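Could someone model copper (II) ion with this protein?
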Amino acid sequence: MSTIAHDDHHDHKPTGLKRWFFSTNHKDIGTLYLIFALTMFFIGGAMAMIIRAELFQPGLQFVDPQFYNSMVTVHALIMIFGAVMPAGVGLANWMIPLMIGAPDMALPRMNNMSFWILPFAFALLLSTLFMDGGAPAGGWTMYPPLVLQTGDAFPFLIFAVHFLGISSIMGAINIIATVFNMRAPGMTLMQMPLFVWTWVITSFLLIASLPVLAGGVTMLLTDKYFGTSFFDAAGGGDPVLFQHIFWFFGHPEVYILALPAFGIVSQIIPAFARKPLFGYASMVYATASIAILSFFVWAHHMFTVGLPIKGELFFMYATMLIAVPTGVKVFNWIATMWKGSMTFETPMLFSVAFVILFTIGGFSGLMLGITPVDFQYHDTYFVVAHFHYVLLTGAIFALMAAAYYWLPKWTGNMYDERLGKIHFWLSLISSNVLFFPQHFLGLAGMPRRIPDYNIQFADFNMISSIGGFAYGITQLLFVYIVIKCAMGGKKARARSWDGAKGLEWEVPSPAPFHTFETPPKLTKKVLESLY
Amino acid sequence: MATQEIYYIPEGSKWPIVGTLSLFVTFLGGAMMFNSVDAGKYVLIIGLALLTYMFAGWFADVIAESIAGKYSKQVDVSFRMGMGWFILSEVMFFAAFFGALYYARMFSIPWLSGEGQGGHNGTHEFLWSSFQASWPMNVMPDPAKYTQYKDVVPAFGVPAINTALLLASGVTVTFAHWALKKANRTALSAWLFATVALGFIFVYFQAGEYAHAMNDLDLTINGGIYGSTFYLLTGFHGFHVTMGAVMLAVILFRSLKGHFSKKDHFAFEAVAWYWHFVDVVWLGLFIFVYWI
Ligand code: HEM
Ligand SMILES: [Cu+2]
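Reply:
Sure, complex below.
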């Protein structure tokens, strides 16, 4: 089998700064994305720590309310656009060409630009922390008229969003072209690893939804500076129109964060259950249905703004419908594990935790999707608990799983399994201490985006903050594990995990700078042995 | 799988990072201008200059590689996919503004005047109870805040002529394509020239119409939701036509230099696709903004 891995003798790499600034190599660009995402995860995390410190006790302790709101807003923007999305694209960059036997991404120069935009876009955004009027504080959802009161930061916010959108759209185009045009001859679409599938579908979501957000924030800009009245009823517009535009983007966006995570666990669970993925085709169709449905549910974020009753009903039922394909996925992951010869290395631990905790987040999502009860839950900590279950114990856990799973392929070394397990258990416990009590807080009526709270919420908030600090510190351990693994350790085999299947495990570890410069020959027999 | 060509992976290139920097400087300049910082406009100009430099340099590299025969059929397919999906993203950008237009006409204006939901929840009664729905809406809910205009631009004047111009340019660009496929270089250049000319005439008419609307009709971007949707939709479209016409001009220039072959002329096709896209958006504008 190792004949597939065409080991290149002239594995020449560019050196110095040029290697990184001028890169056209999917592995280097993937690495840049991943390091950037991890850095932003810590910057956004530091902001979360400030928020949790302020909420440790009732009353105003450390920061003034305006700054608190800036922290909430920028934390969210960083985590979504700076941590989770770039980490996903970084994995796509590294793994998709390896998984489909392609020499690189289809458009390597554009690939480099998609990455380099990110640090510059965040420079625009983070510079606002030092401006007159402070950083944006109206929430990452940028609702007018509140967001129009932003100070000097306002145009920076809008342009940062445009800039990030350009990056994501270019990244998405690249992934689509790579997957549809660069597969090794013989690999049909329905033979692609599920991670590849989830990423193509995510790319469609990006291309269809981000330009709409760009249009929406452009209207904010003209409303503030050019006298248009898109969101001003005095001129015949409507502030609620912005919410429609935003969530038309926003709901697909949550699947942009989640679908790659689905793809990751669909790779990892079969590897450690030592069984093929249960219901491959149904996984593909479920992913596609989720993506399509995600364009018809946006107003479940707006149940309380006074929509016509028919709209409320439509969006409630459409939302319920998404539970069906999601249920198919959860069923398939569990069925894959059923009677498997399972072992629980760190990637598997994170993946199993993902399945359970993402499902908890999914259930609270269903509760929020029921119109009449959302009237109670809306804008409370219940919502905060919900989206952190799907984003942190969901998306971030899957990304962690991916990092552990592929680190041997990236670095050529095995990470320290004992430390990995410690990282997992500490993360698991602390994140639940952090977010589970927020369900109770929300049900009891504690509002989100407020720096102070009534005395009756004190105990749960203190517990939550302790969990938050513990989670934050635990992640430093992850950095240590990654650095240690990059520096050395037990040498990884080409197939680093016994049960791991797929083309990426046919090339040596670490993967050479250039792989599959001539496409591997995939006969039917080879393909069967791969899955 | 008979013969496998090697997919061309370019060496490291400075253009992506130059492109990133130029966009960064452009955005920075724009944001400074909005904050009334004097230096803003110079920063913006530097950014735009860098952007132009980047486009010229990047495309020059690609053209040189193409002429040197480095691109296989497969690379060509990647470019095609890239352009196609880029155009789709542009379609979605316009969709946001069309969405705003439909929303205003179907929901916010009727509700403000007391129909449906707006009668229900008191919007009409408590905000501007004398407001009456109309389209074009030239009496504002709050007349003190937005400028009232005398009239709007009628569909069957300059806009109709512009429709004819753009449709004709869609035909001429197709003729140019046919000429290219028959390797008739003279006809190619002539039809391309006609297309570019039609594009710029369109922009010229559009500018004249803007002047008329602003000066004679008092219809400005400050004219409530009608003015907002009118100027943003036609403005972004006009910008796209200008870009498209400039791109066509570059293609014309290249065809005069003898670039493109019967079989191999992706750049030409990409710009033609773009041009048709701009054309279709205009039809939407003509129907929904000007006509009905
Ligand atoms: C490091 C662990 C994290 C902690 C301790 C944390 C904590 C918080 C807190 C306390 C809030 C403010 C809630 C409020 O008052 O409204 C918040 C908001 C938010 N967080 Fe996190 N968070 C973490 C990780 C993440 C991650 C990984 C994501 C996304 C991938 C994320 C996305 C968001 C979003 C979207 C908001 C809403 C902001 C808004 O209301 O505009 N968080 N987080
Ligand atoms: Cu949603």
